[in-house]
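for the writeup, i need someone to sanity check this before i put it in the appendix. the sequnce is what the collaborator sent (i think, or maybe the updated version? ugh). structure was predicted straight from it, no edits. if anything looks off just tell me and ill rerun, i have time this weekend
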Amino acid sequence: MLSATVRVAGDLDLAEECAQEAYVSALGAWARDGVPERPGAWLTTAARNQALDRLRREVTLRRKLPLLVEPATADPDDPDGRDGRDGLDAAVPDDRLRLVFTCCHPALSPEARIALTLRLVCGVPTPDVARAFLVPEPTMAARITRAKKKISQARIPFRVPGPSELPERVDSVLTAVHLLFSTGHTAGEGDALVREELCDRALHLARTLAALLPEQAETRGLLGLLLLTDARRATRTDEQGRLLLLGDQDRTRWNQRAIMEGLTVTAGALASGPPGRFTLQAAIAGVHAVAPSFDRTDWPRIVHLYDLLLAVWNTPVVALNRAAAVSFADGPTAALPLLDDLAADPRLANYPYLYATRADLLQRLGDTAGAASSYRRAIELTANAAERAFLQQRLAEIGHADPASC
């Protein structure tokens, strides 16, 4: 709805206002006349009409507000924005993906592009965006506000990029789609572990990107990563919604069609040259996908792939994942010093998976008191009900709490 309205309004803030007004109109009209057969189309049409009315009333709007698309697309006489733009529309055929590309304008910082895209285009709540970037919520809210102000003050002429301009925005777009999937794969808060609509939306965008830019190996790497990761969706919780770790999942229920497609796509990306961060993550997911059991996973291979990943994408989360792999390849004693080093990184100070991983290592080493302390800290930092219940159960299992009292 927002994507379609922006093409008429020519301004993101105006489009958001028109979308909100459309919802208000729907509350009255639908209560009176009933819900229409196609409510999404009704809302989109109402929002677009609001934008057209604004443009007609304020003929100087395009000179006062920054444009997110070419001036022709903000023409009230061309509401579909297709005057002379068929070639670019064909280059970016998906409305939502088109707006993702426009938000990932090179004039903004990479962090601002991705945060703006997640919040305004994908509808990811600000706390989840902040969690993805390992920053406090107020920091992320301020970052998004500054990005919008920069668009307004600098009058950045956002427009649909041409085919030759797409590659320079690819990395930011891929990152936004990946974070969108991650937000759905493990919801930051709420009762359910997975937000399936976000996973499906990200998979659709990843498929579109791979088809749009087949010469970009990382688009195939991202698609492979999402397919191989999402193949486990049905087995990540039991019938009661309780979280199941990788070692406890029924591998016979993994989506074999998605795994085969993901492996094929990943192999193609690996054959295209030195792998990037998404292709390497896809390769790691592929090792898990082909392992006949958790115990027979090729952990040394996974550690090696994490070493390669750290060389191209050195982040504390990647280092934490590598430490977890080391604990299974070489034992928890070898991994614990790695966690001690990561604990000094302020970006992980409130990252629950650091403490959950540490608790698991200490529990495997027989230090139940230390494990209990780390489990309690992880529980404090975890907002997702399914993950919190799992941690509470682990704490109870080592004799330090009753799950009902946590």
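Confidence is low (pLDDT under 50) at residues 64-88, 402-406. Residues 12-33 form the longest helix (22 residues).
thx in advance!!
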